[in-house]
TrEMBL record:
It is a multi-pass membrane protein. It comes from Aliidiomarina halalkaliphila. Belongs to the CPA3 antiporters (TC 2.A.63) subunit D family. Keywords: Cell membrane, Membrane, Transmembrane, Transmembrane helix, Ubiquinone. This is NADH-ubiquinone oxidoreductase.
């Protein structure tokens, strides 16, 4: 144990993130099917580091490499730690799922296994890396790596539907990256103004710099929309219901359970929220967040109940759930004094959604592989995450939603409280449709 603790304190964080990239370089086309173990091994070093970090009481853990890129600054963030743990666990379980698929003889008929494994490892590296990157250059590099590598997961089957979904995905991805890069460069320029050091500013310096800028509203809008593409923001969400039905089941699970939270993480790290919001005029952008969140929460549910595939229903459900999170974000942006409590509710809701939505996606593959009584038992088991998402009493969903509702109950939000509470009805309709389609097929 002493040796493990020593390694935890002395191994640089970049090595944990680069490990999947090293494994990706070792994938060969002729032996790819036997490399499924890499998908399980790739997230394990980060998972072990996070668990040990938790065991030590979450002490400060920072890695700085001034000479690399524009100056690396990576750390375990106490606020994002639950999302990081959820992300790594979900990628680990999904890796086990793929490994089992590759062991099946039918995997011999699947094309492009080597490309699939490489894209999986690259996407994993970007996803876990952006959660620990503290400088702007590293954060954007890893975010872009995750975004573009995931294209290979979407088009893996290379069916006409998969290729069309890939086109929509990459189009929205490029638009989002353009907005994001513009906002980050603009914000970084304000953050670096007046500094004598040549290193790039930290991402933690962006909220204050944006709040103090005369163009802060426009920078915040660029970042909100740029990260909104990945977060499934209403109007920018079209890739989700197209990509999930065609992507392999484990890829859909990480796309919806983990990767979609990268957009939320970007919002939390870069937008002028809490005390920073008090110094700027961000009410219009915050109100836009609330409006788009409500449209996503209920509009996606309305579209999802007419979907004809279970994974498409789950995709619309993710848009709906992220709409609720967007409502939380916008409300906390408007009422900055309540931001700390709302931030806790957002993190809990994000972790709750990631775990439960991942299980529901896995369930599509599990049910299709079973028959008779075994399939029925699996459907009964899947009621647990479904009821959690709905927010029935004594569930994680009830706890996550109550954290937010307790805060806004004392705020002058008008009809927002009953409207947000009605989100459980939208989720119930989607879960009913999900089980109907699973049982039908």
């Amino acid at each position: 144990m002493t040796l493990i603790m020593y390694l935890l304190h002395h191994i640089p964080l970049p090595l944990l993130v680069v490990f999947p990239l090293v494994l990706a370089c070792c994938v060969r086309t002729d032996t790819a099917r036997r490399r499924g173990w890499m998908l399980i091994a790739a997230p394990l070093p980060m998972l072990l580091a996070v668990l040990l970090w938790y065991a030590q009481g979450q002490p400060e853990f920072i890695t700085e490499i001034p000479w690399l890129m524009l100056g690396l600054h990576w750390r375990f963030d106490n606020t994002l730690a639950p999302i990081l743990l959820m992300t790594v666990l979900l990628w680990t379980v999904a890796g086990i799922y793929v490994w089992q698929q590759l062991r099946d003889n039918s995997a011999d008929q699947q094309p492009h296994i080597a490309r699939y494994i490489r894209c999986w490892l690259l996407t994993l590296s970007g996803n876990i890396g952006l959660l620990v990157a503290g400088d702007i250059a590293s954060f954007y590099t890893l975010f872009a790596l995750m975004t573009f590598a995931a294209f290979g997961l979407v088009i893996h089957t290379q069916t006409p539907n998969a290729l069309f979904a890939g086109k929509v995905y990459i189009l929205l991805a490029v638009i989002g990256e353009g907005l994001l890069l513009s906002g980050l460069i603009w914000g970084a320029a304000h953050a670096a103004a007046g500094e004598l050091t040549p290193t790039a500013p930290l991402i933690s310096s962006l909220p204050a710099a944006i709040a103090a800028s005369a163009n802060g509203v426009w920078i915040a809008l660029l970042l909100f929309l740029g990260f909104g593409v990945k977060a499934g923001l209403a109007g920018l969400h079209w890739w989700l219901p197209l990509a999930h039905p065609v992507a392999p089941t484990p890829a859909s699970a990480v796309l919806s359970g983990a990767m979609i939270k990268a957009g939320l993480v970007g919002w939390l790290l870069t937008l002028p929220l809490g005390d920073f919001a008090a110094g700027g005029n961000f009410a219009n952008v915050a109100s836009l967040a609330v409006i788009l969140g409500l449209i996503g929460a209920f509009g996606a549910a309305l579209m999802g109940v007419f979907a004809k595939k279970a994974k498409a229903v789950l995709a619309y459900s993710s848009v709906s759930q992220m709409g609720m999170i967007t409502v939380m974000l916008g409300t906390g942006w408007l009422y900055d004094a309540a931001w700390e409590a709302i931030l806790a509710a957002i993190v809990v809701f994000a972790v709750h959604h990631g775990f439960n939505k991942g299980v529901l996606f896995f369930g599509v593959g599990w049910v299709s592989a079973l028959s008779g009584r075994a399939a029925t038992l699996m459907l009964v088991f899947l009621l647990i995450p479904a009821l959690n998402l709905i927010g029935v009493p004594f569930s994680s969903g009830e706890y996550a939603k109550d954290l937010f509702k307790h805060v806004i109950a004392d705020l002058p939000v008008g009809l927002l409280y009953p409207i947000f509470s009605a989100g459980a009805l939208a989720t119930t309709a989607l879960m009913a449709r999900y089980f109907y389609l699973l049982r039908k097929h």
